[in-house]
Each structure stands twice: as structure tokens, then as C-alpha cells.
Amino acid sequence: MYHKVIRYSSFLGALTVALGAFGAHGLKKIVPQFAVDIFETGVRYQFYHVFALLIAGYLYSKYSNKLIFTAIVLFITGIILFSGSLYIMTFIMGRGIQGYEWIGPITPVGGLAFIVGWIFLGLGVSSSKKNKYKSHHS
């Protein structure tokens, strides 16, 4: 399982670099600066959570449990909802499309997935360490 997480992280990392390069070079020519700033926030948080996925994949290989697996799912969900909604908003603003205000509330749901993912990751490692400690000292 953790091999898949490492592969997803690698793919998402490459995608993040490509999106960042596009944001730095091409996007500025087609959307206003405030939209570029929104896009860059999406790229930044995606990159943070690519590293979180790598860490979670490694930890899952050591402490395979449902809490760490849930953290992995939440990080991926957060990337899709948080960063994805920011990318969509940038596209919509750049095109001057109206009537898509409903996308804005998706972003904090993705942010919440990131927060809960970090909590689950910490709980997953903590519970695994307690179980290992008990099995070695029982």
C-alpha cells in the first residue's frame, strides 16, 4: 500500500512543479495578479501536502494502521478540494465567467481535510508507538 502512496506523491510532486512553473511564467499573462496569488496559494499547499503524503506513506510502512491510512486519504482529499478549488477559481476569474461563487466554500472543506489529516497522522503514530511499547514491555 505505501508504495502506491509514494507513487501518488511522486506524480503529485511533478504536477505541483509544473503548475508552479505555469503560475510563475504563463499565468501572469492571462489573469490579474490577485488570481495569480490565489493560484500560488493552491500550489504552495499542494506542495506541502505532497511532502505530507511522502511522510505518511513512509510511516504507514512502519506503523500500518487505519489512522495513518485515513490521514493519507484526507491529504489527497485536501489537495483535490483545497488546491483544486483554487485552481478552478483562478480559471474562472481569468475567463470572466459568472455564477460560480459556490466553488469558494469548497476551499475551507479542503483545508479542514488537511488539518484533520495531520491530527490523524499524529494519532496514528502515537497509537502505534503505544502498541509497540506494550508488546515489548508486557
Automatic annotation (TrEMBL):
It is found in: Membrane. It is a multi-pass membrane protein. GO terms for cellular component: plasma membrane. The chain crosses the membrane at residues 42-60, 67-90, 102-125. Keywords: Membrane, Transmembrane, Transmembrane helix. Belongs to the UPF0382 family. PANTHER family: TRANSMEMBRANE PROTEIN 256. This is DUF423 domain-containing protein. The lineage of its organism: Bacteria, Pseudomonadati, Bacteroidota, Chitinophagia, Chitinophagales.
